[in-house]
Amino acid sequence: MKLYKLLSFSFVLATLTSCTFTENITINDNGTGKFSVDMDGSALMAMAGDQIGSQMGADAKKDIDSSFTFKQLFEEKKDSIAKLSPEMQKEIKKLENFVVKTKMSSEKKEFLMTLSTDFKNVNEMQDILQTLSVLQKLEQGASTVSPFGSNFGDNNSKLSYSYDGKRFSRKAVLDTEKLAEKAKDSTADMSKMMFASSNYVVKYHFPKKIKKVSNPNALFSEDRKTITIQYPFTDYMENPDKLNFDVEFEK
């Protein structure tokens, strides 16, 4: 299946029904780690198989288990990228090493997509989700370049992570100018409706035991090295600062 067709389908899936988006971060002892966002759209496979079939054509009859890097996709779109501003090209280059993995089975009613990359330091991952929204610029009017749709990541905030071995912080700072622009956007209510029943989950694994988390809804793993917090997707899109929290580790 061509990369663009697969990405196009995932966008259709994400906007038709409730999905669960999970933001994963794993930090190793030396500070390196892995970042990923998972989308589970299996609910739609169970409810709307016929509609999916019409979108996918002959590919709907096949099980899909594929992976590719954004570097491959960018090679296909190199002419479009060359027309972008140097600043935007620099932003897009941040995504080159991301890997997109897709598993789809009509028979098993399964659709899973993962966007992942390794990092040398979690501080490198500033605004990485917002960069995804830049991908729509690759083709005029296209909203299908980003695996999770053009609005994903563009939630009117600047997201940063920090980790020094003693504390971890996830912090989104609201962009008031963008919020004002969004208030005038007639498509905002439509986006809210599309994702009203979706969830956004953060699941972070650390090399040390956690002493405390500032979010009272955090769930701990048995070894107290992993936390999981679930939010309504509307909070992620409309009130991203609600997803801010700090973690303190045991000495």
Poorly predicted spans: 140-144
Q: Which strand order spans the largest sheet, edge to edge or round the barrel? A: 3-4-5-2-1-8-11-10
Largest sheet: 8 strands, mixed
Let me know the average pLDDT. 79
The counted number of beta strands is 12
Shape: globular
The number of helical segments is: 10
Radius of gyration: 18 Å
- Strand content is 25-35%
- Tally of domains: 1
Helix content: 25-40%
Our measurement of the CA-to-CA distance between the termini, rounded to an integer number of angstroms, reads 50 Å
Structural class by SSE content: alpha+beta
Q: Helices and strands, in N-to-C order?
A: HEEHHEHHHEEHEEHHEEEEHE
Keywords: Signal
Organism: Flavobacterium cheongpyeongense
Protein name: Lipoprotein
Signal peptide: 1-20
Describe this structure in words.
The protein is built from ten helices and twelve strands. It is of the alpha+beta class. It has one domain. A hairpin with a 5-residue loop joins strand 10 and strand 11. The longest helix has 14 residues. This is Lipoprotein.
Write the layout of secondary structure elements.
Blueprint (H helix, E strand, L loop, with lengths): L2 H14 L3 E8 L5 E8 L1 H6 L1 H8 L7 E6 H7 L1 H5 L3 H8 L5 E7 L4 E10 L8 H7 L22 E7 L3 E8 L1 H8 L4 H7 L4 E7 L4 E4 L5 E2 L5 E7 H6 L6 E5 L2
Parallel strand pairs: 1-8
Antiparallel strand pairs: 1-2, 2-5, 3-4, 4-5, 6-7, 7-12, 8-11, 9-12, 10-11
